[in-house]
Amino acid sequence: MSDTLFVSTRKGLFTVSRKRVAWAISAVDFLGDNVSVTLTDHRDGRRYAALDHGHFGVKLHRSTATGWEEIAAPTYPPKPEGYEETDM
User: Fold this and answer.
1) Is the Cβ–Cβ distance between 17 and 23 less than 8 Å?
2) Cα–Cα distances in angstroms (integers) from residue 7 to residues 13, 36, 39, in the given order
């Protein structure tokens, strides 16, 4: 059984740890942001959090040794030279 619980809410990501007598919040990340899902990759221990920014869409973040980093969204490759758009 784990001594740590990650709680994703509309108000942020809360890390809850088991203390000697009870559970207590030990860390708060993304305060005020809607964290829709959090998971831990057991291969390397990194945590991933999906933040739903409403109009701007979902952004994926990965834990690092010093905090969190945003994972860049995939982009379309550049159009080939001389290509003309005909489907408008």
Assistant:
1) yes
2) 6, 10, 10
Does 39 score more than 90 pLDDT?
yes
**Token reading at 82:** 């001389």
Q: Given this model, what pLDDT does residue 26 score?
A: 94
Mean pLDDT, residues 9-17: 96
Phi, psi of 60 (to 5 degrees): -100, 130
Q: Write out the two tokens for 86.
A: 């005909």
pLDDT score at 76: 86
Distance CA 42, CA 55 (A): 32
The CB-side HSE value for 58 (13 A sphere, CA atoms) comes to 8
State the pTM of this model. 0.78
What's the rounded Cα separation, in Å, for the pair 4 and 25? 10
